[in-house]
């Protein structure tokens, strides 16, 4: 991947005008689509398959009058007795009944104009509740409907009686961006300026992040024409998109400026930055997207859509960092090069500069007594997680709305006058089609329900007009999100067998409150599977990246500690009321149900970001330096500044959504802000270096069988370094031949690694033919497959047709032909097609020529290959046994050489390293070279010296 990113980075730098134009067109197209297709958002939360939702769906067919949303209209008499205001009551009831979307209004007035005995009047007589049932579902209520309801109550309010309207018809107000969120961008700009030391460079991540978020949001709103989207989802995507967009651009831009400071050409630096830091950005972005998409494991549609929406924002941020950012780098070119340091000062980034830096001082402090650091940090984070044990979940309702809104005022008024349960009545329904006395049956069920603890009132119990479905409205003593109401729902469902035995009817509990409880329970059940998913995913991904067992384990433990601390902070603030004033807490109570699982998914991806960017530098220094504990210090010092800046930016973006957010978003934003801070500064920058120093060499241990099983992920772009080192190897004018040095192919066996081939070196320039003869047939096959780009070399440097293997294996397969002569009816014709077709190969590899039984065919094939070398300048490699090689005649005018594979080590387990760098257990390349293996004109002693 790094090879493709390197090429694309250079291309975007060179064609920056075209790339910018494409992004302008993409943004304009997405914006046009959003304007034309957007269907808006909703605050409806439901889970298909739950008892409450299924019962609600049945009611919509059999008893539609009670299945839809409802409005609660409340009258408060100024003189203290609402019975004296029946004229106003009649006016409001008539107006409500005349509204288009109102299906029915609960009767409150008798024919003589007095209040009915069953009318809901407060104990002091000052307040009357009128319920208007709508023929719309909660997610179908439009702004026009609620405006019409508010118009009725506003018009009826006088000095004598005040009317308000609320209920589940009034969804929580749509979340919108405010000026407060700009504070996050301002803090990000300041941090970027301090980190990069340039206003010009600091502005680039901000610009790319805004472009990415704007594009993602346009696509999201365009998709609302076919997908139902909650109002929280777009803002969550904005929050995440801005944070990761700035961070990803910062990582790439910081690497680019480091390389410019070292004197690298701007275009070359862009390519390398995109290949190295860009590879880490791709890995980090994929990790976040997988975690967000993994929210679908809960099986909850609105949560799945929310996760995919946020994942889309992350995906766009990755694409912007790899395309638009390199183009902007190209537009400014050398102007992004940092200023030269003043005389007498060490250039920033040099070893001397790092020795006394705050990062170097900090890492020395935390690794001086690593065990003490690990114990102290772990104990502190476990203590911070204690409040999380009291976590309670619920869906938002009108009680979480902003103070002063009609729905919140109505909610508070009902709670005060009629009890908190009046805001969340339950509905018990059942099929009574077999009953001969539906009224008596409903009355009997009502008596059983009234006998339960926690029931404040049963204001309504009736069959429908067809007498096939009953409903019993139950007002709990507790509020919609209270533990008392949750317990009452459980008791009602436990009452089902008794009612079925006594009355022959199977009941179900539904209503908005029951739906919210079922959603919360389903989300709580999904937490453990999701934790196992993301932790397991982190173990596999990090083992792939760092080739270690302990690094992933340590990362997973740190992630769980960060999650615990973040959840603890959310519970302390939004359930216990800590810092309620400074944080402008809208409401205290249960946390929104999907906050924990969202926090788990998002923080997982962000934690892996910091783990990758920090530990990859440590691993890089370990691989090159050898001393594990010294690598922790040097690697940390070289990466800590950028990681700290990224964490501060992300913290600022998330924290900016806390003071002015709604009750839905506030706990999510606070959890993410605390989680990012804890994970970056206490876990990744304190616990991680201490743990790695404590483990020493063992930190990088990986069993051989697991190493072979796990695919390799070049997250730090090491492959592009290998490719660039071999760019002019074996010489700048060597041409598209076949070259190898120290080539080795191994295979895993039950008793360890077995060497199939090598180490071997060879050089076949264009127009040359090499006979690789002798040895084991398996070794010859391995050589042919590697040179043809079909198998990865286990060790060594290989370059075929100008493509470095394995990084450019795709290019090699396009330009290198592999001829298995034994599989061809006419191998001569097959070779002619490969060498002279519409897209002729530049290198041809013939595998095990001895398997062609006819000597004359073998010779004819060699003659064809020789002609191709002489006339077409092709490079040809033929593998065969020694007997066949001895019988072949190559034309005198074709440069030919032989490689005796029999002189290579026999197939045997590879010796284990001794630990001495001078004695690595591998035979030196020169020990297996044979005369003629490398033509004299391309010998390192003649052309360009040794390989770089």
From TrEMBL:
The keyword Membrane applies. Residues 199-331 form the SSD domain. It is a multi-pass membrane protein. It is found in: Cell membrane. SUPFAM superfamilies: Multidrug efflux transporter AcrB transmembrane domain (SSF82866), P-loop containing nucleoside triphosphate hydrolases (SSF52540). Residues 907-948 are annotated as: Disordered. Pfam families: MMPL. Keywords: Cell membrane, Membrane, Transmembrane, Transmembrane helix. The keyword Chloroplast does not apply. InterPro entries: Acrflvin-R, MMPL_dom, Mycobact_MmpL, P-loop_NTPase, SSD. The chain crosses the membrane at residues 182-202, 209-227, 233-253, 274-302, 308-332, 371-389, 526-546, 558-579, 591-615, 636-658, 670-695. Belongs to the resistance-nodulation-cell division (RND) (TC 2.A.6) family. MmpL subfamily. PANTHER family: MEMBRANE PROTEIN MJ1562-RELATED, MEMBRANE PROTEIN SCO6666-RELATED. This is MMPL family transporter.
